[in-house]
């Protein structure tokens, strides 16, 4: 998910065409259905070029003709509209006890959302990936790619996992990528929320930050490992991580019973809302230290907004004010709660493949 | 110094030409003097295109013909060589009590290095900038730009300072930019050391990190402000900053006498080398906490190498091993000492304008 090296290569017509395809797609996303003449007038491309580009896009089923436009004198012009339905992209979120598969079409509309209990084997991942890909292909869609969202502390390398999954799929032409869950969740926030610059704070595995800086995903973000102080000082995850928050907030609950983090966090929210002092203090404590962690990011990287994600979003009502009090002493930055829920990383994995089309890299059309 | 937005624009022949100019310049930087035919053969450009591009570069005095090449049969081909001497770029480093001006030509050769004591007024900055620009213009060079390197904690905004300085210069066509000292020092390390990915750690003003990630400067880097712990916990600058290090290492020296940080740090180095226990312990203490700070950066951003800069470089012999012990528990990353000295930010400011030529944006030639 890092940016590629920008070594200059001789520029030619293929680059020009790719850029111009991106210009046409972007115009239609921003302005809605338009005639060829209107596209030409507003993009600065010649009419002949627009005709050729839109022909290519129609052939790739990314545009369709929607009949004549009414608002002009003379021969009515055919209007072109974006058509996302011929393409699908799949994200899978890999958690310790659950797999989630989510597919969207090129317009971002959700095509499927499946959850499966898992023991964490590659075979289970491959089986679910295969079923999801088959389903959207049966619907007549070309699959742009499949992204596996993994927690930052996964005990295998991303490249290994990608090779094992890609090698086991029946269709070898499916593009498989692997990326960190927090980064992909940030990508989902970027595409759906329109933010070009944000830090998504995930509590799902330790305490991770997904960073999109000036439009580009940035590696790193292992916020929970932060520690400053003499030997033996707790890490930020010890102080502000979801697991330690839940242990502090629910001292009467057997830790063995807390493996489903989602329902434990819901219980904390219920108790905090009911005025339970122990739960309230635990959330306040975590929120203050979370704010110190956000201040680290604000000073070192300076994202424009912090998005409290997944389990932190569930508790944002209490966490955000406590965190904001710490943060405002450093670099006042808005803190908002994510509305994408617990499978934002799967969504981010799915939308990550749409970008290649946005930038004019049209897929081969054999599905 | 942030990356620009990559909104697609219709691509045309101007972009193609700019890219191809960059390709030719890059080829000559990498391979040394070459004939037009050799450039064409190795870049994949046609001979006609290479003739046109090199004609443009000769007109801009970036290439010169150096006579026939010997190693070929038949009519000898004229060899083209890069010529950096017609262009100059100026960096100025603004410290509390000193201004430094440094100019380089397009090949990176140093043209001047001036220091002035200062009370910190805009008039002093303008006067020195003007003298430096006049000097290199008298030598027949076109000035690509002037960059002011400011500490991260400067009490005015960069844009304000730029406007005041640019507005007071006699020549209004001189491009003036302002950027953080640590970032510019990192840029100098990148251009001269060839590292595409590094964190330059500066002790000159607080404790700042200049970040170049995958070839691009990244904003932020205010490492000294980091703090994690209960209310009243010292910041990282309190624990690992140069000012606090010097106070701990030289308890017998009047703090009022320590305004020249450079000579105080030299004294610490002399005492540490002589086996002075107080100085040795102070450097060890700062080095350990500096390592915790580098670990924050390693976990959050993951630079490929840490470069201990300016005053930290002077003490690197003792700081680096102590820092490495903390860092290796997180993400083992090389720690090296900068060799660019105390005016690396001025050098970075100067070289920052050379990049526009590298990427094929040829300046107007009226100096």
Automatic annotation (TrEMBL), chains A, B:
It comes from the Bacteria. SUPFAM superfamilies: Actin-like ATPase domain (SSF53067), Winged helix' DNA-binding domain (SSF46785). Residues 23-65 form the HTH iclR-type domain. The keyword DNA damage does not apply. Signal peptide: none annotated. Coiled coil: none annotated. InterPro entries: ATPase_NBD (IPR043129), ROK (IPR000600), Tscrpt_reg_IclR_N (IPR005471), WH-like_DNA-bd_sf (IPR036388), WH_DNA-bd_sf (IPR036390). Keywords: Kinase, Transferase. GO terms for molecular function: kinase activity. The keyword Transferase applies. Belongs to the ROK (NagC/XylR) family. This is Sugar kinase. It comes from Actinoplanes ianthinogenes.
């Amino acid at each position: 998910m890092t940016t590629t090296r920008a070594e200059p290569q001789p520029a030619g017509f293929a680059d020009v065409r790719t850029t111009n395809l991106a210009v046409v797609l972007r115009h239609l996303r921003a302005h809605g259905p338009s005639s060829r003449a209107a596209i030409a007038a507003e993009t600065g491309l010649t009419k002949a070029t627009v005709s050729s580009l839109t022909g290519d896009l129609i052939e790739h089923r990314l545009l369709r003709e929607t009949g004549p436009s009414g608002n002009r004198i003379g021969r009515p012009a055919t209007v072109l509209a974006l058509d996302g339905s011929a393409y699908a992209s799949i994200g899978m979120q890999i958690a310790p006890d659950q797999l989630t598969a989510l597919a969207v079409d090129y317009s971002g509309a959700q095509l499927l959302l499946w959850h499966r209990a898992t023991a964490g084997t590659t075979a289970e991942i491959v089986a679910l990936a295969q079923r999801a890909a088959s389903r959207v292909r049966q619907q007549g869609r070309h699959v742009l790619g499949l992204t596996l969202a993994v927690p930052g502390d996964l005990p295998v390398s991303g490249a290994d996992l990608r090779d094992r999954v890609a090698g086991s799929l029946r269709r070898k032409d499916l593009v498989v990528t692997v990326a960190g869950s927090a980064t992909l969740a940030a990508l989902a926030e970027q595409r759906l929320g329109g933010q070009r610059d944000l830090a998504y704070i995930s509590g799902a595995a330790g305490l991770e930050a997904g960073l999109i800086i000036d439009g580009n995903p940035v590696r790193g973000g292992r916020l929970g490992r932060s520690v400053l102080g003499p030997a033996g000082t707790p890490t930020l995850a010890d102080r502000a991580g979801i697991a330690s928050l839940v242990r502090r907030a629910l001292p009467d609950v057997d830790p063995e019973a807390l493996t489903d983090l989602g329902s434990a966090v819901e219980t904390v929210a219920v108790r905090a809302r009911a005025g339970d002092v122990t739960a309230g203090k635990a959330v306040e404590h975590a929120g203050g230290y979370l704010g110190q962690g956000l201040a680290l990011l604000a000073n070192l990287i300076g994202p424009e907004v912090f998005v409290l994600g997944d389990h932190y979003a569930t508790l944002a009502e209490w966490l955000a004010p406590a965190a904001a009090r710490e943060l405002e002493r450093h670099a006042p930055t808005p803190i908002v709660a994510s509305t994408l829920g617990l499978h934002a990383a799967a969504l981010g994995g799915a939308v990550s493949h749409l970008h290649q089309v946005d930038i004019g890299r049209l897929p081969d059309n054999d599905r």
